[in-house]
Amino acid sequence: MSGVLWAVASGVGFGLFQVFNRRAVRDLDVYVSTFLQLVVSVVVLGAVVAATGELALLRGAGAGPIVEFGVAAFLHFFLGWTLLNASQKQTGAARTTLLVATVPVFGTIAAAIGLGEFPGWPVAAGVALTVTGVILVSGQHPAIAGGGDRPARWWDVGLGLGAALCWAVSPIFARRGLEGLPSPLLGLTLGLGGTVVVYGVLLAVRRGAGVDHALRQPEALGYKLLAGVLVALSQWARWVAIDLAPVAVVLALIQAVVPAVVLVLAPLVLGRHLERVTGRLWLGAGVITSGSLLLIFRP
After folding, report:
1. How many CB atoms lie within 10 A of CB 236?
2. 71: pLDDT confidence band, cut at 50, 70 and 90?
3. Average pLDDT, stretch 121-146?
4. Which residues contact 78 (CB under 8 A, 6 or more apart)?
5. Three-class SS of residue 101?
6. Phi (first) and psi of residue 290, to 5 degrees
7. What is the pLDDT of residues 275-284, one digit of tens each?
8. Once rounded to an integer, what is the mean pLDDT over residues 182-211?
9. What letter does residue 28 receive in the DSSP assignment?
10. CA nearest neighbour of 195 among 85, 282, 69
């Protein structure tokens, strides 16, 4: 299976994850939601690691790859997932998805600096299109509480863009880690495990704020369980794709697939009162996706 197919599979999984995660995060504290997401993911991937016997690869690996995986996981999961959950809670799944779709812009720049993967002339057009799309989807959005529309606050927009930036930079460290420990599955699981520990400490410092409330939300917890399984498998596919194909291509393909999945399914699964997918959103999605796809081309 090629890196391109792995990337497409990852994009479909991430789209499904964002839809179900939006339903869960509506009733959960952002930090508790992220922690549960991490725990479910590390349990799923840990079981796969145990079944495949890839844990034995650690014997020949030094500390360097593990550190690289840890940095990649901190950026992607600790920071990126926290910002994602916060953005979904504030602006909904559809708009968050489109803001996060700016990953290829950040990723192309990061890959050029960190990995020497320089794009060709389409990068300027791709960046311009993506920025235009962000402006389109950021103009108005439904108020999450109370109904109606309100102008988008730059803080709300910044949450999604911040997640995109974290997700764009993290593959550089993942790729470096894979050079010393060539197992995307094991590397991802190690990084997730370390992040779970850090997040657990954070919740302990917050004295479990939001945990009691979460335990009284069985429906939200069920959606979170499903979302955690989906994102774990999608993240595995993403790391495999990064190991097989150029980072910019992988990020562009994933972010080209995710918006279509979310814009179609979010109103059906979550209800149109929560996810109002307007013509302006579809236009923004098309513009952002076009900019992302331009970044695939190489000189």
Report:
1. 22
2. very high
3. 63
4. 195, 198, 199
5. coil
6. -60, -45
7. 777 787 888 7
8. 83
9. S
10. 69
